[in-house]
Design goal:
5-stranded mixed sheet, 16 helices, alpha/beta, about 40% helix, Alpha-Beta Plaits, single chain, Molybdenum Cofactor Biosythetic Enzyme, Chain A, Maf protein
């Protein structure tokens, strides 16, 4: 299949929210071997939505629409799709039952507008909403498949995972197995990595190779289609060998899990805990850790000490250290790491101190960063010279912290 994604909602055009649904669906569809030809964003306008659907179906085997399934007057997607397909909108009893129960439990009246969320197109497949109220719809019209998904990302992602994927796997043109493998690279830019793999990417059709720049890393997804999983894996293995021969030194991991989860998994497996002392990163390292399910087993705690006095009073950095070397220094980073480890009774301490910008600090330009690592009775600090906006520098510092934990094998005590 090839696909087009149409995001519906004037709030997207006005810049009030970002189209994260399109980004997520592109990744998920690519993993199924479905090529994305175009993204379109349409406001809440009947005529323009009709036009977008008419144009998309001329080019695509699959048209996915997100948004516009709710109860308000500007939720037009089902109405327009029904009119375009020449099908009636009818009530889906299980969805109506869920709606009724939802409002009864809250002592609220179920209005006619809210009942619209239980409508679907006749002779279509209903996609259950596991995280909300409005049901989705999937159907085939002539040679094109249509899929209508809700706008709220937490609803859309769950519906696509639980309902949309099975529909597509059942209705794809070729009865083939789709397998994917992800390779994760760091310390190399997307353009440089693509240049190393240019001929492989350019001449491959099966497997397909899709590079994607992400926060602090570059991801290469290799997807193969074959009659069996074993045949698809063989195709991927041949391409994997070529990729790693060219850029294996930059590949830190293979698989779906990102660096942060991999690092916390390694900590968990080793039975060790970590604590963080943060200045310029403002608690970002701690947030990233706590966002991961099961973080309580490995993340002992953290402290944000932004000012020099806070570093002294909260983290116990010596006044003479700051007076002699400043807060943006190896010495300060090392004391922060050691003291937060001891204070939190953790096995590993990590610290971040530096200049996020936009102005210099203590004679250091923006992007000057020190990351301290303390394990047992040993401590070491690593200098960084980062570039970009204030936000990008802070993000990059956090990622580098996790990268150091992974690369330097701090958890295995062989960093020093």
């Amino acid at each position: 299949m090839n696909a087009e994604i149409i995001a519906v909602g004037s709030e997207l055009l006005l810049g009030q929210i970002a189209n994260t649904n399109g980004q997520h669906l592109s990744k998920e569809l690519a993993a199924l071997g479905i090529s994305i030809f175009r993204h379109t964003v349409i406001g809440d306008n009947t005529a323009r939505l009709h036009e977008a659907i008419t144009e998309a179906e001329k080019r695509a085997d699959l048209v996915v629409l997100t948004g516009g399934l709710g109860p308000t007057e500007d939720d037009l997607t089902k109405d327009v799709a029904a009119e375009h397909a020449g099908r009636k909108l009818i009530e889906h009893p299980p969805s109506m039952k869920s709606l009724t129960l939802f409002f009864e439990e809250r002592g609220m009246a179920l209005t006619e507008a809210n009942k619209r969320q239980a409508l679907y197109l006749e002779d279509s497949c209903v996609l259950e909403n596991h995280n909300g109220l409005a049901c989705g719809v999937a159907f085939k019209q002539n040679d094109t498949h249509y899929m209508l998904l809700p706008g709220p990302p937490h609803e859309m992602k769950m519906m696509f995972e639980k309902e949309g994927k099975p529909y597509l796997l059942k209705n794809r043109k070729e009865n083939k197995v789709i397998e994917s493998k992800i390779f994760r690279f760091t310390e190399i830019g997307e353009s440089t990595l693509e240049a190393k793999l240019k001929d492989i990417i350019g001449f491959q059709s099966n497997p397909t190779i899709a590079p994607l720049a992400s926060e602090g890393e570059v991801i290469i997804r290799v997807t193969a289609a074959a009659s069996t999983a074993e045949e698809a894996d063989k195709l991927i293995a041949a391409t994997e060998q070529q990729i790693l021969e060219r850029a294996g030194e930059y590949c830190y991991a293979v698989g779906e899990k990102p660096l942060i989860e991999l690092t916390l998994d390694r900590l968990r497996e080793s039975g060790k805990t970590i604590a963080a002392a943060e200045s310029l990163t403002g608690g970002w390292f701690a947030k990233k850790a706590i966002d991961v399910e099961g973080a309580s087993a490995v993340f002992a705690g953290g402290a944000v000490a932004y000012s020099a006095s806070a570093k002294e009073q909260l983290l116990g950095v010596k006044a003479e250290t700051i007076a002699s070397y400043g807060t943006v220094s190896r010495e300060c980073a090392e004391e922060m790491a050691v003291n937060v480890k001891d204070y939190m009774q953790a096995d590993v301490g990590i610290s971040f101190t530096g200049v996020a910008g936009p102005d210099p600090l203590e004679g250091h330009p923006p992007g000057t960063v020190w990351i301290g690592l303390a394990v047992d009775n040993e401590v070491k600090a690593f200098p960084l010279e980062l570039r970009g906006s204030r936000k990008l520098i802070r993000h990059s510092a956090v990622f580098h912290g996790y990268r150091l934990l992974w690369k330097e094998k701090v958890i295995n005590n062989d960093v020093f």
